[in-house]
Automatic annotation (TrEMBL):
This is Gelsolin-like domain-containing protein. The keyword Repeat applies. GO terms for molecular function: actin filament binding; phosphatidylinositol-4,5-bisphosphate binding. Transmembrane segments: none annotated. It comes from Cebus imitator (Panamanian white-faced capuchin). The lineage of its organism: Eukaryota, Metazoa, Chordata, Craniata, Vertebrata. One of its GO terms (cellular component) is actin cytoskeleton.
Length: 307
């Protein structure tokens, strides 16, 4: 009996009457308020969320958000919680059911910066990340996890999840170093909610964490502007933008254009797009659309004049 979970009565405070957005994460069948700065971040490992929006003229909307890995038995708790909210609000909320990856336009309108899905649990508060994303300065490309990918003329970003290292070669210039720092900070803020540590590493002063991942540091090649230009041209030609369509009843990928940088105007909010950077094999459009919830710095750098 889910009602026994609330022996002291209503699990909500009178603040649910306040206008605006209220978000709760359902933990052990009980609602836990989500602080404002974390609203829009959803843990998908077996979680449910309740969202209440109190608009003007006493119009309210109550949403149940269901994570892809959620178990159905917890929906019984939602039914009881919804009864409590309805009672507090005089039976006025309109109820909606939202499934991860298929949220309604109304639900999305509450989060103008987009949604972020996180794996794991609330204690970890980190995205599951790949082990490395070294980078050139003008564009961020993924390279092999090896010292062979480094050279002294550029800057590289080593992303280890909780620690992000911006390594600056001894012959890199101040503009390149500043750009590497800005990109590392952008990854921290947009993909780790500001909870990762960013460290600027000078060539020759590598911390133990880098050595543990990359191995002993050898003598590095110098690199040159011609190699940078060749890398930019090669990676640009390997990049393509696709539009996902199901107008025929089947999911189809149609190439919009190839060779970046792309014009931002090609992206339309009513459609779904796949950006193939050449570093990964393309999967189904549906799989990509379910994960593309906000633009990361790495995504934006494939477009010119992104606002």
């Amino acid at each position: 009996d889910y009602r026994r979970s609330f022996p002291s009565g209503c699990p909500f405070s009178a603040s649910v009457q306040d206008p605006g957005l209220h978000v709760w994460r359902v933990e052990k069948l009980k609602p836990v308020p989500v602080v404002r700065e974390n609203q829009g971040v959803f843990f998908s490992s077996g979680d449910f969320y309740l969202l209440l929006y109190n608009g003007p003229e006493e119009v309210s909307h109550l949403h149940l958000w269901i994570g892809q890995q959620s178990s159905w038995h917890e929906q019984g708790a939602y039914a009881v919680l919804a009864v409590h909210l309805n009672t507090l609000l005089g039976e006025r909320p309109v109820q909606h059911r939202e499934v991860q990856g298929s949220e309604s336009n109304l639900f999305m309108s509450y989060f103008p910066q987009g949604l972020k899905y996180q794996e794991g649990d609330v204690e970890s508060a980190f995205h599951k990340t790949s082990s490395v994303a070294p980078a050139a300065v003008k564009k961020l490309y993924q390279w092999a996890l090896s010292w062979d990918s480094f050279h002294t003329g550029d800057c590289f970003i080593l992303d280890l999840g909780q620690n992000i290292f911006a390594w600056c070669g001894g012959k890199s210039n101040i503009l390149e170093r500043n750009k590497a720092r800005d990109l590392a900070l952008a990854v921290r803020d947009s993909e780790r909610q500001g909870k990762a540590q960013v460290e600027i590493v000078t060539d020759g002063e590598e911390p133990d964490e880098m050595i543990q991942v990359l191995g002993p540091k050898p003598s590095l090649k110098e690199g040159n502007p011609e190699e940078d230009l060749t890398a930019d041209q090669t990676n640009a030609q390997a990049t393509a933008l696709y539009k996902v369509s199901h107008a025929t009843g089947q999911m189809n990928l149609t190439k919009v254009t190839d060779s970046s940088p792309f014009a931002p105007e090609l992206l339309m909010s009513d459609d779904c797009f796949v950006l193939d950077s050449g570093s990964q094999m393309r999967r189904s459009g549906r799989q990509f659309c379910s994960r593309a919830v906000s633009e990361t710095p790495i995504f934006k750098q494939f477009f010119k004049d992104w606002k």
